[in-house]
Write a structure and sequence with these properties.
The complex is a heterodimer of chains A (117) and B (114). By secondary structure, chain A is mainly β. Chain A is built from no helices and 11 strands. Helices cover 0% and strands 54% of the residues of chain A. With 114 residues, chain B is an all-beta fold. Chain B starts with a strand and ends with a strand. In chain B, 39% of the residues are buried. Classes of the chains: A mainly beta (117), B mainly beta (114).
């Protein structure tokens, strides 16, 4: 079936630099996308989400970009800190919640962000 | 920080045993989910629920079963554990608002079947 994937299993960046984590999705019907951060021994933690009627959304130190033309999603982290070290997952959902609508999120494989001092 | 709790955090059990993984949330969310995750890998949906007395199977076939008798509680049961069930099990919940909303996850139960 169709699924969400990430380009790199591991990304290493210098502390203080900006990080860009990429994700390609294949289902053109997806209209909701979300980024999660998962630290070792913990469950995924919500970072930011975006709906398909938007191209960009900003949070605190994070920006999500959505390019529907090429079905590409990215997460930008500004001024990366040691606490940003984690595995980052993108996920998608299809359609709105209404009775028999799509349920649960489809996750990509994750990118392990490593921060070098 | 989401108020969703999973117990136990770690469980080592022998083959053939029956186990129940507990999940509770205090946010009043109607929708709840169980995901299975192998170390470092993506999450796979195994069960979900729209609300009380609602249970559905997810994308990944699983020998586990779930129940939803109360809004806040969504336990997962394995009648006869096998080594192939060794994995991390993550519970999540979300609001049922008519549009997509984020899932809030617990910290998981890491199950090892010997």
């Amino acid at each position: 079936g169709e699924s969400v994937g990430l380009h790199l299993p591991t990304l290493s960046v210098q502390e203080g630099d900006n990080s860009i984590i990429n994700c390609a999705y294949s289902n053109s019907a997806s209209d909701y996308f979300i980024w999660y951060k998962q630290e070792s021994g913990k469950g995924p933690q919500f970072i930011i989400d975006i709906r398909s009627n938007m191209d960009k959304r900003q949070g605190q130190r994070v920006t999500v970009l959505l390019n529907k033309t090429v079905k590409h999603l990215s997460l930008q982290i500004a001024a990366t800190q040691p606490g940003d070290s984690a595995v980052y997952f993108c996920a998608e959902n299809i359609g709105t919640e209404s009775g028999g609508g799509a349920d649960g999120l489809t996750f990509g494989k994750g990118t392990h962000l490593i921060i070098q001092p | 920080e989401a108020d969703i709790y999973q117990t136990p955090r770690y469980l080592v059990i022998g083959t053939g045993k029956k186990i129940t993984l507990e999940c509770s949330q205090t946010m009043g969310h109607d929708k709840m989910y169980w995901y299975q995750q192998d170390p470092g890998m993506e999450l796979h949906l195994i069960h979900y629920s729209y609300g009380v007395n609602s249970t559905e199977k997810g994308d990944l076939s699983s020998e586990s079963t779930v129940s939803r008798i109360r809004t806040e509680h969504f336990p997962l049961t394995l009648e006869s554990a096998r080594p192939s069930h060794t994995s991390q099990y993550l519970c999540a919940s979300s609001e049922y608002t008519g549009i997509n909303s984020p899932l809030h996850f617990g910290n998981g139960t890491r199950l090892t079947v010997t």
